[in-house]
Specification:
The complex is a heterodimer. Helix content of chain A is 26%, strand content 13%. Chain A is of the alpha/beta class. In chain A, the strands form three sheets. Chain A has a five-stranded parallel beta sheet, with helices on both faces. Chain A has a two-stranded antiparallel sheet with strand order 4-8. Chain A has a two-stranded antiparallel ribbon with strand order 6-7. Chain A starts with a strand and ends in a 22-residue tail after the last helix. By secondary structure, chain B is an alpha+beta fold. Among the domains of chain B are: 90 residues, no CATH class; 178 residues, Cytochrome-c3 Hydrogenase, chain B. Chain B has 15 helices and 16 strands. In chain B, a hairpin with a 5-residue loop joins β13 and β14. In chain B, α4 packs antiparallel against α12 and α11 packs antiparallel against α12. Chain B is globular. Chain B starts with a strand and ends with a strand. The chains are: A alpha/beta, B alpha+beta. At the A-B interface, α1, α2, α3, α6 and β7 of A face β3, α1, α4, α7 and β9 of B.
């Protein structure tokens, strides 16, 4: 019997999800012994046309990372969906939009302006911008169009499972691949990671008080932290209580707060609003002006609570960003 | 004869997306080949409003292959933003972990990305031109040594930086966590292993050159040669340095034309925009943008290993310096203009990084608990420059008085190389494709021209959505699509 076929593809992403797979180290040799990798642009020379030539459903599993912002990404993920029995959204960007999803705070034109018109190192006196179609010395050259907003993978195609994390932790990847190969998958739509908050696996959990009250939040560069004590109890914005575990609380191990890349636990629909309300309830003040003063110590609420999940949230984008032109 | 267009889509064994359009004339020779980068993500824009101290973690998401480079450039920009000098131990730990990163990242390219072209062969079947093909040639034992070395180094990076993919330890004025004294022994052991690994990698390359005389011919062939300016960071003795120093620029004859601190980058570097790609093209401002041409009149430059070795007067450590001398002897002296020699220069840098790692690992101060200076200044503006594996990387931030970003400007390594990469792909296509004859191996000869640079189109398109497939499409003289090439 031929081995199951697996494809790995990236969309609007950074390559960290690819590196996370390479970080399986010798484990990657077990993977290639068990499956045929039929598409993986970072490491193998198979092309789009090789995938096009496959029958529908011929690929057992596609692991797709990255958010979706361009016509090309949309076309590629639709093709991989057709060719695949299972699609897993791999990593924070495919799962929730990820850090590139913060671009939804701005319009597409804002983004283009920053790069091509407002950069102090880019004179561009002719106001050139990349064009979807352009004739260079008589040669027709095309580029994908960029959508007005960044989308999660499941806003574009049907997704069967999710592997969270920025990037996904190696042990989570191993277990998820094992579950696929052994056919021991949970209910469709599941996130393939423990459904328990991060604090559960944090080495500092014993120092986390039953009840935490905070009168002002600290920024990590302006205060020395106690390396043994719960960061939240010290007043740092550690998102451990509202974030799914599975990474080993590595950021806290590095003496920095959790920023929430693993996303919410199963019952939470919107990570950002959940985090926002959880932190609002920590504020000790009762009078309105004192509450406002305490809240103002959170330097960037949007970027803090929606850092990896803006496209997946109920907000999806900033109010002034119109979605005309998007499919 | 019919005329055609070939499209390579996506280009492979690199970080990020891209496609190559090869346009043939009536004779079936290449009229022009374009490397296009089809994405952009917008980091400079959505940085606005974010607290500056979050930038090392946000900008590392520009690239998950070289997150340490962005994290470190950003952290250096924060030192400058808050006008704070980290304690000596913090600077040493930063350079130590940066050296570890350079070893493992250069190893990734040598064995996984670019290496297959040399080890397995440029025109080997495509199913074999990858790390698994490399293992087939060098043997599983050696393969496991390579995999094991990277794992050992990346585990150390996790220990020091919290996470290896998307580090968390950089703060203005220092780092979040000191190295516990009990780990120093392991770091020294790993560093000794890394030095041996560097020597071993050089031997792999030397054996290949000895066994395959064609290889040196490829490397020094005109199809992969461009005479351009070069830029890289040097220490006070003009030796290669990755973490700190001045930027030095030499002309196509090797003569120094600029030596400046990174904070003066705007006086020396500018970026050009083309309508057919999302990537921007850096050039030397004082020479100017003269289009896609090489030579002393054109401001196009190269960065990354070959360029760094061209601008420096040598390597600061003994084994690397010896390898440097041998390399220059073999390729005919400086400046080296052979794009494919970049892979050789990369191994020399790998050795330097390993030797530097060992020096720092043995420094008693590396485990000092004093690794933070808490900033007190009101932030206004900061610039941080570092040598990423793929070349000079610049982060420049302006903030309000609370330290929220009002403006960010990023010039990444692959942008500094992008114009020369465009030249290289065009010239390699012209050299490889004659009379309309194209096959999978020939197309890989075109891809090798960009792959030698180890480009990162994820980095290069931090500004908008990030995709890099490579397609070869052939058009007739009326620009009709005759064939979109697929490698069977």
């Amino acid at each position: 019997m031929s081995k199951p076929k697996v494809a790995l593809y990236w969309c609007s992403s950074c390559g960290g999800c690819e590196e996370a797979v390479v970080d399986l180290a010798e484990g990657i040799l077990d993977v290639v012994a068990a499956v045929d990798i039929v598409f993986w642009p970072v490491a193998l020379d198979f092309k789009k046309s090789d995938v096009e030539a496959m029958a529908d459903g011929e690929i057992t599993l596609s692991l797709i990372n990255g958010a979706i912002r361009s016509s090309e990404q949309e076309e590629m993920v639709h093709m991989l969906r057709r060719k695949s029995q299972l699609v897993i959204a791999f990593g924070s960007c495919a799962h929730m939009g990820g850090i590139p999803g913060l671009a939804n705070l701005f319009t597409r034109q804002n983004v283009l302006d920053s790069s091509y018109h407002e950069s102090p190192s880019t004179p561009n006196n002719e106001h050139v911008e990349p064009q979807v179609e352009y004739s260079a010395n008589g040669h027709r050259l095309t580029l994908p169009s960029l959508w007005e907003t960044v989308k999660t993978l499941n806003q574009v195609i049907a997704v069967d499972y999710y592997i969270p994390g920025c990037p996904p932790p190696v042990n989570i990847i191993k277990e998820a691949l094992g579950a696929v190969l052994q056919g021991k998958l949970p209910e469709k739509g599941s996130v393939l990671a423990p459904d328990v908050p991060l604090c559960d696996e944090c080495k500092r959990r014993e120092s986390k008080p039953e009840q935490i009250k905070i009168d002002s939040f600290k920024r990590p560069h302006l205060a020395q932290s106690d390396p043994e004590q719960c960061l939240l109890a010290q007043g740092f914005i550690c998102l451990g209580p509202v974030t799914r575990k599975g990474c080993g609380a590595v950021c806290v191990e590095g003496n920095m707060p959790c920023t929430g890349c693993m996303g919410p636990t199963g019952r939470v629909l919107d990570y950002g609003s959940k985090a926002l309300s959880a932190f609002a309830s920590l504020i000790s003040a009762n009078a309105d002006d004192e509450i406002e003063k305490a809240a103002a110590t959170i330097a960037d609420p949007t970027g803090t609570f929606y850092r990896y999940s803006l496209p997946a949230s109920f907000l999806h984008r900033a109010g002034h960003v119109k979605v005309t032109g998007d499919k | 004869m019919s005329t055609r267009r070939y499209t390579i889509d996506p280009i492979t064994r690199l970080e990020g997306h891209g496609k190559i359009e090869i346009l043939l004339n009536e004779k079936g020779d290449v009229d022009h080949a374009y490397l296009q980068v089809p994405e952009l993500r917008g980091f400079e824009r959505f940085a606005q409003g974010r607290p500056a101290e979050d930038m090392p973690q946000i900008t590392s998401r520009i690239c998950g292959v070289c997150p340490t480079a962005h994290h470190m450039a950003s952290t250096k920009a924060l030192d400058d933003l808050y006008k704070v000098t980290p304690p000596p131990a913090a600077l040493k730990v930063r350079e130590l972990v940066y050296s570890i990163f350079m070893v493992e990242d250069h190893a990734l390219h040598f064995y996984y990305l670019g290496g297959p072209d040399f080890v397995v062969g440029p025109t080997a079947p495509k199913a074999e031109r990858n790390i698994l093909g490399v293992l087939g040639v060098v043997g599983l034992e050696i393969g496991k040594e390579v995999i094991g070395m990277r794992k050992q180094l990346r585990d150390l990076m996790t220990l020091i930086m919290g996470k290896v993919i998307h580090p968390v330890f950089g703060l203005p004025g220092g780092i979040s966590k000191a190295i516990a004294p009990e780990h120093q022994k392991d770091i020294i052991k790993a560093a000794e292993h890394a030095v041996e690994f560097g020597k071993f990698s050089l031997k792999v390359l030397e054996d290949l050159l000895a066994k395959k005389p064609d290889l040196l011919k490829y490397i020094t062939s005109d199809a992969y040669t461009h005479r351009t300016y070069y830029m890289g960071m040097v220490d006070s003795k003009n030796k290669v340095n990755f973490y700190d120093g001045s930027l030095r620029v030499v002309d196509p004859l090797g003569k120094q034309v600029a030596l400046f601190p990174g904070k003066d980058y705007l006086a020396h570097i500018a970026e050009h925009v083309e309508p057919w790609s999302y990537v921007k093209y850096s050039y030397l401002k004082n020479i100017g943008w003269k289009g896609f041409v090489d030579g002393p009149e054109s401001g196009i430059m190269a960065v990354a290993p070959m360029a760094r070795l061209n601008v420096a007067d040598g390597m600061a450590t003994p084994v690397a310096n010896q390898a440097y001398e041998q390399y220059l002897h073999a390729v005919g002296g400086k400046p080296v203009h052979f794009t494919l020699a970049t892979s050789w220069a990369r191994v020399i840098e790998l050795i330097y990084a390993a030797e530097r790692m060992l020096e720092l690992a043995n420094d008693p101060e590396i485990v000092s608990p004093n690794v933070r200076t808490i900033p007190t200044a009101t932030p206004v503006e900061g610039i941080g420059v570092i040598e990423a594996p793929r070349g000079t990387l610049i982060h420049h931030y302006q903030t309000d008085e609370k330290g929220l970003i009002t403006k960010a400007n990023l010039i990444v390594a692959t942008q500094n190389n992008s114009a020369r990469i465009a030249l290289s792909v065009d010239k390699a296509a012209k050299g490889a494709i004659k009379g309309g004859h194209v096959d999978d191996g020939i197309l890989n000869l075109v891809e090798m021209a960009f792959r030698a640079y180890d480009p990162c189109h994820g980095c290069a398109t931090h500004a908008l959505p990030g995709q890099m497939p490579l397609r070869v499409r052939v058009l007739d003289s009326n620009r009709n699509l005759v064939r979109e090439f697929s490698r069977e």
